[in-house]
Amino acid sequence: MSRADDFERQGFLVLPDFVPAASCDALKARAEALVEGFQPETVSIFTTHEQTRTSDEYFLSSGDQIRFFFEEGAFRPDGSLRQAKALSLNKIGHALHDLDPLFSEFSRTPALAALSAELGLRQPLLLQSMYIFKQPHIGGEVNSHQDSTFLYTDPPTCLGFWFALEDATLENGCLWALPGGHRVGLKKRFVRAPGGGTAFRVLDATPVPEEGFVPLEVKKGTLVVLHGLLPHKSGPNTSPKSRHAYSVHLIDGAASYPLDNWLHRSAQMPPRGF
Question: What kind of architecture, by CATH, is found in domain 3-252?
């Protein structure tokens, strides 16, 4: 059975040893250098919990920028950090793949171009990227979600490439996926609200099944490919080990990208392919 057949059947692929360990280490070192140079004038906390999702301007204008987002558990009640800055961040987003040469090189390889074509993207565009820290002890839980909720096209074409830069285990908050769940249909969209801020627009109120998720424990260098409609999640990291990962989300340029999507890019930096 081909990779495309596997992907169509279960909605995800797990491809071990897709990236050399040295490339993982180089990306981690570059992320550490970016964090070192980050002086937090604006504190933005990233969460996937709907009732507390940050919709501030720092977040909403990050589609064509390199921005830094803190963990919910990083701060003391008085607003000071509980630990060092480098151990307090949730992620960096959302245009690393366009604005940083090393991240661009990592994200744009012949192997990834071939894989995106194999999985059906006719005009692949790299729309969004995130460096995810999943910090020791405070790495937050990510609720079950579909990537097409946040990166919607008509028809849905979102494709996620998630790279394990360190081993991902049950203890440090590995991914969980619902095999075949990409066939449940898109449940909601995350859009810019007419009066400012953001909102979830419900498309189908039928809940996603809570049972049947499987853990994706993977080794460093593994690529996990996620269908945009696939429900997936990750648990909190309560272990002393981090779980660094890097993800790139692609869409098909042949599809329509609605203006009310939360992620906007300037006309000077439209999404581009490989």
Answer: Sandwich (2.60)
